[in-house]
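S1.2 Input.
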Amino acid sequence: MSVPDARAIEFGCAPKRGPTFVRGSVATLWDEDGNEYIDCGASFGVGNLGHCNPAIVEAIQAQARELIHIGPVFGTTAKATFVEKLLSVAPRNLGRVFLSNSGSEAVEAAIKFARASTRRKKIIAAMRGFHGRTMGALSATWRKDFREPFEPLVPGFEHVPFNDIEALQKAVDHDTAAVILEAVQGEGGVHVASPEYLPAAREACDRTGALLILDEVQTGMGRTGRLFAVERWGVEPDLLTLAKSLAGGVPIGATLATEDVERAFQGSHNSTFGGNPLACAAATAAIGYTVRERLWERADHLGTIGVEKLRGLEAPSVREVRGLGLMIGIELRGKAAPVLQAMQEEGVLAIGGGSSVVRLLPPLVIPEDQWSSALDVLGRTLSHG
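S1.3 Output.
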């Protein structure tokens, strides 16, 4: 029986192309008609630990029996435990955590912290970058169709070409509060920062007193073959944003900062639901599971298999295959939508990364046979395209 959702809409979004789901387990989803799908992106990067991971379910159930919510000015054992757990695995220079409810909120907080602690206004972001849809995060986001209907946006944002070190160095000056970058641009088409790019951004910020914000909302928590993508570049950011898979499917956002940023901060910022016990308990369990199972190593292994298989296809429709770990983009010579639809009809769900890119973001726990089957479906679809 179909459940009508006509009143629950996403303003301006295309009509839903997919089924209505009723159940999920690991990397499998079932719709209301009993059809089975392999999830290679349906959770938009949230599902690193798979659907209904027992460790997350048990943590939610246990916390719900004790305390679900209390205002952010009060402490809870769930919040204290999570913050300690997060800082134990985070880049060593980051010693402060602000908790919110989403990636956009985490980015908003980072922008506010950067401006308030440097007393500067200018924010440098990258072309093709995506940082969210709230007004500040959207101002850092590049895509014209996302931005234009809501203009004027927050002033003071400038965009430079991604991986162009000279353009970045020229843009960052003594009026710059922060540079905000993704190590891998997900929504922008799975473009990976060059080995020199993030170190150059760090140097430019150090030279001018600007802060470096790394947006790891999608890349964090093992997705790219490291617990945090920035580990591959050996760079320490001043601020780092997390969300998506951080709590195993429960909404959460986190903005990590150095103690220097906190000391220089003036003003106030808060979030009513940020750090609520339910999300914190889920997030503690999620980090514990990720570390215990070393899921970043699994992402690295399965991602290597996937990229090699896709690059070996005889598919004229494919322009390039790129990515890190289980964050893979297949750039096509045509539109991605028909490929995504054809995959769905064969029981595999993926998403776009721009109009011409098929993006794969499977759970890091996906069984190898399912991953192989999904790649076979994609390969057949591309070869016939």
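S1.4 Remarks. The chain has two domains: 21-52+294-384, 54-293.
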